[in-house]
Amino acid sequence: MTNVEDLPLNSFHKRLTVYSAGGPFLDGYVLSIIGVALVQAGPQLNMSASWEGLIGASALIGVFFGGFLGGWLTDKFGRQTLYTLDLIAIILCSVAQFWVQDVFWLFVLRLLIGIAVGADYPIATSLLAEFTPKKYRGPLIGALIVMWFVGAAVAYVVGELLLHLGPDGWRWMLASGALPAVVFVILRHGTPESPRWLANKGRVDEARAVVRRVFGDNASLESLSADEHGERIDTKVLFRSGYGKRMVFISIFWTCSIIPLFAIYAFAPKILDALGLTGPMANIGSAVITILFLVGSLVFVLLINRMGRRKVILHSFLWSGVALLGLGLFPQSPALVILMLFAAYAVFIGGAQILQWVYPNELFPTEIRGSAVGLASSLSRIGAAAGTYLVPWSLVELGIGMTMMIAAGITLLGFLVSWRMAPETKGLSLDEAAAL
Known about the structure:
mainly alpha, Growth Hormone, Chain: A
């Protein structure tokens, strides 16, 4: 009999990775498409700079509520049921955006979309972590963030095309998020429940049945049923003992890695315009930089097992922070230099991005894994939403140079915190990593 965590990678693992990538893809898509849509929607809905910032941050605010709610629900009721319900909510709200007539209702709909996206993070990543062999867990969970950048890149391309449909192009942009959501709902249908979660709830026979159906009769459930005999752990443990320290680390590094990134994505055309890239070049530049974010994430997915989690996060924060510092110190540089510095940031920050879901899924036990991912996601979005909201104000009042300097400071803070607190979990089973 072979332990589930020592099994070779099979077609089920690969399919589950693709299905679980739906949430990150939609997050990247809906967050990025708003940056292009605001070019038309802003004047039509008479948005002030404050409302533009609030609309840009609305999905992030929603993720704050959805992350912890989804984590709590998936730990309590299981991963399978919620795996498609959250995407159905995204479909309905995306379509509703087409008919919105004022800025308030646009904010409400994007807030609801953010709640659904945030709920998907702990649901999908917990399910994937609990099915995946330890040898492949880091690369496969890390690969989910790649789909965030794929979604963002597709959004910029689609947005640029739909801008030419006329004054209602922005409506089609915002409604277009429903199409990929429908595809992922269809793909996710029939996904089994996590055997780890079933065993933890005392439903060992059901867990064994899932393992046999997915992996065959030679797969062992022993490691999965271990939690069933241990101490019952509730969400309060997230704030106690060693778990509290882990939650602090994950929340801070996650926040520091996404504040600059989300702010740039929400307002990339405006930021590039402020740096001297105007008109269509700003949107094209946004798409190119997004592709480089994708490249950086893929590079670190390939390196995460070779370098280890700790080295990946330290190098990622350090060199991406240096790149942002260069943009802050030399904002009037030639366009080629600006693009090269943005490219360096995009590639190097990929390491911190892929670890956003790897670390919390490895450092917490089955009973609270979903809640941990959800809470860390929620807490990180407080800073990300505030940063996104303040970008238009910062560009006007402080200028592009100081805006980039602030982004660099936040990124380098992530390096310092990770240097002090980041553990190494490479090669450990989920039980071993949670017991560090």
